[in-house]
Specification:
The protein is of the alpha+beta class. It folds into two domains: 160 residues, Sandwich (Jelly Rolls); 113 residues, Arc Repressor Mutant, subunit A, CATH 1.10.10. Helices cover 51% and strands 21% of the residues. Helix 6 packs across helix 7.
């Protein structure tokens, strides 16, 4: 079983929605200063040249060449060129929904990460800038694709404060709910049971779960059951009806849900998986 924090983060990122509003390259000379303000957007910046002094909510940082810098929304901040050469950076502004903002705050994301391949990150910014300037029906998809690569690059290389998620009664309740679901995947799980585990009214529990995890409880449970079914199809010779029993579903319901989820029947999935495995062995 995955750690609860890892489950929460993974589910949030699977549901992650963002909107890139602006992106560009900017360069400012010695003495430049951006006035203190509270943005309603997040910023990612690749520092290409120079050094900047950054103040965020009373904390001081230095942005240096070769860093990817993350600036949060909703807190006062100011930036100034503190060197004797121009301060050059690629930047993009983006917004996320309220639920994702809570996760970002809880993780205490780092101010910056060192960039190993500057050219890779530079190209991602360039793709975003180019796509934003194009008048095409696929421009939004190109912006989103490049931005998701960029934010993934940042997440993969920063140390997340996962332990911060474990603080508070809400996360303790969710931990108990996750444990109950894992222990009862071979049964039909009712919302009323989960609400009891969390000591919440069933109607409120659904909103609580969706707000914490990013998806409704039934959707989350079905995903876990289907992942378990995939594992059993890969590792055993059990009939599909037997596997359905092991994940607490009727045979016809598992087959219908499995096809919706993967685009193929359980039997076809097993056939393709084993053919792929044998071809790898050969």
């Amino acid at each position: 079983m995955k750690l609860i924090n890892e489950q929460i983060i993974q589910n949030y990122l699977q549901q992650f929605h963002s909107e890139v509003t602006l992106a560009a390259y900017a360069e400012d000379g010695p003495g430049w200063r951006e006035e203190s303000f509270i943005p309603d957007f997040f910023r990612l910046c690749l520092i290409e040249r120079g050094t900047a002094f950054v103040e965020i909510d009373g904390q001081s940082y230095v942005a240096r060449q070769g860093q990817l810098v993350f600036l949060p929304a909703g807190v006062r901040q100011a930036i100034s060129n503190c060197g004797e050469e121009n301060y050059g950076r690629y930047w993009c502004h983006f917004r996320i929904n309220a639920g994702d903002m809570k996760l970002f705050e809880a993780l205490e994301l780092p101010f910056s990460i060192p960039v190993v391949s500057v050219e890779t990150v530079r190209q991602l910014f360039s793709k975003i800038i180019t796509a934003l300037s194009q008048d095409s029906f696929v421009s939004a998809l190109r912006v989103r694709g490049a931005f998701l690569e960029l934010i993934s690059y940042y997440f993969e290389r920063c140390t997340l404060r996962e332990e911060a998620l474990g603080q508070g009664e809400s996360y303790r309740k969710l931990k108990d709910v996750f444990a109950y679901i894992e222990a009862h995947l071979d049964q039909v799980i009712h919302i009323e049971e989960l609400a009891k585990v969390a000591y919440l009214h069933p109607n409120y529990f659904i909103e609580f779960f969706k707000g914490m995890v990013g998806s409704p409880p039934i959707h989350y449970i079905n995903q876990l059951k289907l992942e378990r079914a995939k594992q059993l199809l890969e590792s055993s010779d059990d009939y599909v009806a037997r596997i359905a029993m092991q994940v607490g579903m009727q045979n016809h319901y598992l087959s219908r849900l499995f096809k919706q989820y993967t685009g193929m029947s359980p039997s076809r999935y097993r056939q393709i998986y084993r053919r792929k495995v044998w071809s790898t062995v050969e």
